[in-house]
Amino acid sequence: MILSDKSITQEINDGNIKFDPPIDDKDISPCSVDVHLGSIIYKFKTPHSAILTSIDLSNPNVATALKELLDPIPILGEGFSLQPNEFVIAYTKESVTLPPHIAGRIEGRSTNARFGITIHSTAPTIHPTWSGNICLEICNQNKIPCTLRAGVAIGQLIFEQVDSMPSRALSSAWLKIKP
Length: 179
What we know:
Blueprint: H1 5-13, E1 18-20, E2 33-44, H2 62-69, E3 70-74, E4 80-82, E5 87-97, E6 102-108, H3 110-113, E7 117-118, E8 125-126, E9 131-140, E10 146-148, E11 153-161
Antiparallel strand pairs: 1-5, 2-3, 2-5, 2-11, 4-10, 5-9, 6-8, 6-11, 7-9
């Protein structure tokens, strides 16, 4: 069951869903909460032409290797120009903490999508007990560049009631990059 604005507000007020920094009431929609782009973009390094590389997703060190492939680029006043077909990693400005009885999904905003901007490739799920900034896989599918600015509403979190207490703790091989 997807939570409505009333249920989201109640869960926040009860301290079950936590945002840091706290969200503004205007960011709560009928069944979601708008989240904002953090201040750093992680752009993939261009491999040297003399080195042929391939990403092996079965390698147990693939998450660690990802950090080595990314260059952190601060989003300054002029913004970051996301080029057509460019793919970058970023994080939400907000850190979110979920209780064991609520899961979330990160989704794009329709306005951004109409300009060809997607914020996740295939991984929208935010598991119960998650705590941290939400990782975004941002791609510009348009034919013209798009300027990304820190603090812009980039996505929306949809919350769902979990039907029973999970029996497994959240574990992830993903190496968290501090935004």
